[in-house]
Design brief:
Layout (H helix, E strand, L loop, with lengths): L2 E5 L8 E5 L7 E4 L9 E7 L5 E6 L3 E6 L9 E8 L3 E7 L10 E6 L3 E6 L7 E6 L9
Antiparallel strand pairs: 1-2, 2-3, 4-5, 5-6, 6-7, 8-9, 9-10, 10-11
């Protein structure tokens, strides 16, 4: 069993996470790559069937980073890949089935309505899959 924990430090300048591949007996602690001067907030995580870990978060936009192995001292990250250039409260999920949509990433966030996007190429490109309502005070949970 694997564990993941994410937190935002008091200064909200980067996202820290800890991962364990041995039922919590030992932990790897790291932070997501970041640029100075940007706040990083609202992280969400998705795992894909190919063993990749994807973290969606707010910085100066809604971005996603992906890694082949967070269960190491220095995970190698790809990205960030921009989901959208504005928005709030992003969420991320992945299709874990073995079918034709296996590994597709789905991002939902608030931006004058609830926006939904998908990516079939680990977050390189995103396409809209619909919006819900027009109330900018609604958030994704």
């Amino acid at each position: 069993m694997s564990y993941y924990n994410s937190s935002i430090p008091d200064d909200q300048s980067f996202i820290e996470f800890a991962s364990s591949s041995d039922n919590g007996n030992s932990w790897y602690q790291n932070d997501l790559p970041h640029n100075a001067g940007y706040n990083y907030a609202d992280p969400s995580i998705a795992f894909t069937p190919d063993g990749k870990t994807h973290i969606n978060y707010l910085s100066n936009n809604i971005s996603i980073n992906s890694s082949n192995n967070i269960f190491s001292d220095n995970p190698v990250w790809n990205g960030p890949f921009e989901v959208n250039n504005r928005g709030d409260k992003p969420w991320l999920n992945s299709d874990m089935t073995a079918g034709s949509c296996s590994g597709v990433l789905y991002s939902t966030y608030s931006d004058s309505s609830i926006k939904n996007k998908m990516s079939s190429d680990i977050g390189l490109t995103w396409s809209s899959i619909g919006n819900f309502n027009n109330n900018e005070n609604d958030y994704v949970y």
